[in-house]
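Suppose you are handed a protein chain with no further information: no name, no annotation, nothing but its sequence. What can you learn? This example shows the usual starting point.
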Amino acid sequence: MDMAKRQKRIIAAVIVVLLLVLGIFKYASLVLPIGLSFYVFQSMGYCIDVYRGTAETETNFFRHALYVSFFPQLLQGPIGDYNRLSPQIFQEHEFSYRNAVYGLQRAAWGFFKKLVIANQISLVIDGIWADYGSYTGFLFWWCILVLYAFQLYADFSGYMDIANGCAQMLGIVMDENFETPYFSKSIAEFWRRWHITLGTWFRNYVFYPILRSDICSGIRKKYRKRNAYLANTLPDAFALLVVWFLIGLWHGAGWCYVAYGLFHGTFVILSVVLSPIYTAFHRKFSKLVESRGFCILQVVRTFLIVAFGYAIFRPADLTVTAEIIRRMTNGIGLHEMLNFGKENIKIFFEIFIGMAALLYADVYHLGHREITLRETISEYPAWKRWGLYIGFLLCIIFLGAYGKSGLDQFAYFRF
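A reasonable first move is to predict its three-dimensional structure. Written in structure tokens, the prediction is:
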């Protein structure tokens, strides 16, 4: 057997073993080690990169273990790329006051998101999900879905801020996992901004290999002369279908997660299939497409699609999803929504403060790509800067929600 075939069999065996480990723990009702999906994917990506020759072989077991289990990213990611992360964690670092300050700021912002926004929203809507059969109305359920959208964003991105902040205090820059995702103008763009490293992983190790596979090559060869559109579109659509099926399955073994992945995948595939129509529309109505009003309409549309998708994702049961959708169409629900607001007016006021800060930070990031908010704050006079720090800390202490076991967990620990 030649060396190439031997290497191919070895990498195939490694991938099978890693997937078996993940599958046994995740889909066989066993106790799932926290963060298993993330470090299995990280290990798999490293092995594939070594096989491709894009990463060097690490012969020191402890150095490799350090890369895979680097503690800030262990529980929920981001999924670290070996070539970017390993040189940082293997080299010596000197203390940096700037890194320490910026890291503490980033971690504090993550705790603010988790405790003031995510936990507070959880307090008011967890009971709704548990007793979904008692609530009806279009407005009421859309209110719940929008709140859950912000809960999940604050919870998941809050963890990433804490992880990246801890890493920065050590002088290590990890990959970003979020980039103002709720300001996306399409579902495809949303997934380029949400859980970025997961999307990058599937693109590099699933999507592109499928496009290069014999199946897709055969499709391109079959239609190349007869229909260039089909020759280019069908392989992309097939690869995307597989990717989104697997992304759904990555979240869990239930059909609800597969449906959630295919729900988003449908919009992404449609954007590829209908790209000639979109291109012609943009060309003909370029001024309309570039207008602020049209962009706002696209952002709102995308956010509503994402929020509706959480009706599939959050219940973890398609029968519950179907019942919630039925109840959404059963009346307006204005009375239910107003009562819901009155019963939780104090918590909603606290949530509003947190969400206002979150939206301000995201809007600032959109408009100031060349400088971060932390860098802007660092230029404030000392009295103003420390006044902001103290006020921020007081918000975490007095507006944050603590104490319940569910609130102590991060949303993506179960994945």
